[in-house]
Design a protein that fits this description.
- The protein has 341 residues and is an alpha/beta fold.
- It has a domain of 227 residues: NAD(P)-binding Rossmann-like Domain (Rossmann fold), CATH 3.40.50.720.
- It contains 11 helices and 15 strands.
- Strands 3-2-1-4-5-7-12 form a 7-stranded parallel β-sheet, sandwiched between helices. It has a two-stranded antiparallel ribbon with strand order 6-15. A two-stranded parallel sheet has the order 8-11.
- The longest helix has 19 residues.
- The protein binds NADP nicotinamide-adenine-dinucleotide phosphate (NAP).
- The site of NADP nicotinamide-adenine-dinucleotide phosphate has 23 residues, from helix 5 and strand 5.
């Protein structure tokens, strides 16, 4: 068990923690067959997946190629054993030119800016997924999806399980169901083995639900508690679970909710952050008991609870914001209940 620090003081320390593979992942990589492609590697989550994969390969002692597929692969992602593949997933010819590998982590997506630009969101979330599914026939794919494919849930339900029927609200969420269905189309015909990773809010110090709350409090803005509850998972745990989920790929597809075990009160966490930040917290709205809430019992039963508990995440993010740590400047809009992004 790795000792978790009380605080994260630098981007280098943060990136190191975010890319730490679990012993179970390293062990799995000793037996995994074939090379691996990380598709959509330049977003918020992709770089952590790339660096964790590199470390897991190194620690496993079994060399394998890691392909970083992106429109513009950045130099920080490339290194020994890690090869860039420049590719716009909307361009079928470019996708057809990609090397075919047995293991794929698929992170391509579009969310923000969807309102007013719906066709682009549908294009990225469905056409690109179709191209990938078609090209990587015969492979195992862990396809990042979202808890937003479920309906907005009442707190009393305990959150959506994998058995909860999809009922997407708004065009972004609908297009995410389309993304899943593109992979399902091939998985149902036994042409592809798939895991849909329905993620609810990866968090790290520079973005995420906790960062959004801390930033608001630091700036003296009120916290709206209408969406009064949320789930979150340390991005390092999310990446670890995503890579370990390669062993669960199946046809038809497996569905896996990925988030932390805690459904937390925004109000309570805001007060904890306020203490760390030395700021008084003010609130607007009133909890309506609804939110995008997911139940991750299945993933946590398979992998164990995430390595970083909520209380430590709160501590890390609070100190990060207080010390003027960098922000990606990408708010999550976790409070949205009407599906408009
Ligand atoms: N982060 C979360 O908390 C969260 C929560 C729920 C679900 N998810 C899902 O997890 C996935 C990864 O999340 P994220 O936060 O890293 O998303 P993100 O920051 O929006 O990154 C999306 C990635 O998709 C790539 N992309 C978009 N269009 C592309 C195209 N035409 N060709 C090639 N690449 C393209 C982007 O590349 P560029 O850099 O070139 O734009 C970027 O690397 C997303 O699909 C999202 O649905 C994330």
């Amino acid at each position: 068990m790795v000792q978790l620090p009380d605080r994260i003081e630098s981007a280098a320390q943060l990136d190191d923690l975010l890319s730490q593979p679990s012993p179970a992942l390293v062990e799995q990589f000793r037996h995994l067959v074939g090379d691996i492609a990380i598709v959509g590697a330049t977003g918020k989550v992709g770089p952590s997946v790339v660096h964790m994969t590199r470390r897991a390969v190194q620690e496993s002692g079994v060399p394998r190629r890691i392909l970083v597929v992106a429109r513009k692969p950045t130099a920080d992602l490339i290194g020994p054993g890690v090869e860039p593949c420049t590719c716009d997933l909307l361009d079928s010819h470019a996708v057809a030119a990609l090397p075919r590998v047995p293991n794929v982590i698929y992170l391509v997506g579009r969310k923000f800016g969807s309102t007013g630009s719906e066709s682009m969101t549908w294009g990225v979330n469905s056409i690109a997924a179709y191209h990938a599914a078609h090209h990587f026939r015969g492979s195992r794919i862990v396809a990042f999806s979202t808890g937003c494919v479920y309906p907005v849930m009442d707190l009393a339900t305990g959150g959506a399980t994998e058995a909860t029927p999809v009922a997407p609200v708004g065009e972004y969420a609908m297009s995410c169901v389309a993304r899943e269905r593109m992979f399902d189309y091939f998985a149902d015909q036994k042409l592809l083995e798939v895991v849909h990773l329905r993620l609810n809010y990866a968090v790290e110090c520079r973005y995420g639900v906790l960062h959004d709350l801390a930033t608001r409090i630091w700036q003296g803005e009120p916290v709206d508690v209408t969406t009064g509850y949320a789930n979150a998972i340390w991005q390092g745990d999310c990446c670890d679970q995503a890579l370990r989920a390669l062993s669960l790929a199946s046809s038809p597809a497996t569905i896996l909710n990925v988030t932390g075990p805690e459904t937390f009160s925004i109000r309570q966490v805001a007060l904890q952050l306020g203490e760390i930040l030395g700021k008084e917290v003010t609130f607007t709205g009133q909890e309506n008991g609804l939110g995008y809430l997911s139940n991750a019992s299945r993933a946590n039963g398979l992998f164990g609870n995430p390595r970083v508990p909520l209380a430590r995440l709160v501590q890390w993010v609070g100190h990060w914001v207080r010390q003027g740590g960098t922000s990606l400047g990408k708010p999550t809009h976790f409070e949205t209940q009407d599906g408009k992004y």
